[in-house]
Backbone:
């Protein structure tokens, strides 16, 4: 099916494959900040492949499963929308975390995802500004222990999974804990 000059994209071996006709000029992709950026690997061609890992990095900063919006100079303003969620090859979702407190510290746990290569845990403590999350752990395991000496007061945690193509899911809902050390 051809829409706005684009043929239906496909995902193979961690690459997004695009092809088109009736389009002139650069092929662009909308970033997370809703600005179009040219896909240099598509310049002057009628087909190209883009590594999925590139989509999650600057300037795009897209997450796995997001709606992709392409633009070229052609019919219907040359826009084409691709629902990345349709591809089950790369699907990862943010895991749900649970926490337990013991004498060694606070243990965060989550369920393993079959397509996840690793997990990124971020947190916000009283040392960060409101809603400012900083990296806590990057691990292929399904748990992380925070030592007792780092635990106190209100803490917030988020997690996301990254697949074998090095593309991350969106972050989970925030888990909020308040720990009293008295």
Residues:
């Amino acid at each position: 099916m051809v829409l706005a000059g684009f043929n239906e994209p496909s995902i193979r071996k961690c690459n997004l494959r695009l092809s088109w006709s009736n389009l002139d000029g650069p092929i662009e992709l909308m970033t997370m900040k809703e600005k179009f950026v040219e896909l240099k690997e598509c310049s002057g061609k009628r087909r190209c492949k883009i590594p999925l890992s590139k989509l999650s990095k600057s300037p795009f900063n897209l997450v796995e499963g997001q709606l992709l919006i392409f633009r070229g100079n052609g019919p219907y303003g040359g826009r084409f929308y691709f629902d990345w969620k349709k591809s089950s090859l790369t699907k990862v979702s943010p895991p749900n975390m649970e926490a337990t407190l013991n004498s060694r510290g606070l243990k965060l746990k989550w369920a393993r995802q079959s397509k996840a290569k690793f997990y990124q845990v971020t947190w916000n403590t009283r040392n960060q500004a409101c809603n400012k999350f900083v990296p806590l752990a990057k691990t292929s395991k399904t748990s992380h222990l925070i030592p007792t000496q780092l635990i106190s007061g209100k803490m917030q945690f988020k997690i996301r999974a990254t697949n074998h193509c090095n593309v991350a899911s969106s972050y989970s809902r925030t888990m909020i804990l308040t720990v009293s050390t008295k």
Observations:
- The helical segments are 52-55.
- Residues 97-179 form a domain with the Immunoglobulin-like fold (CATH 2.60.40.10).
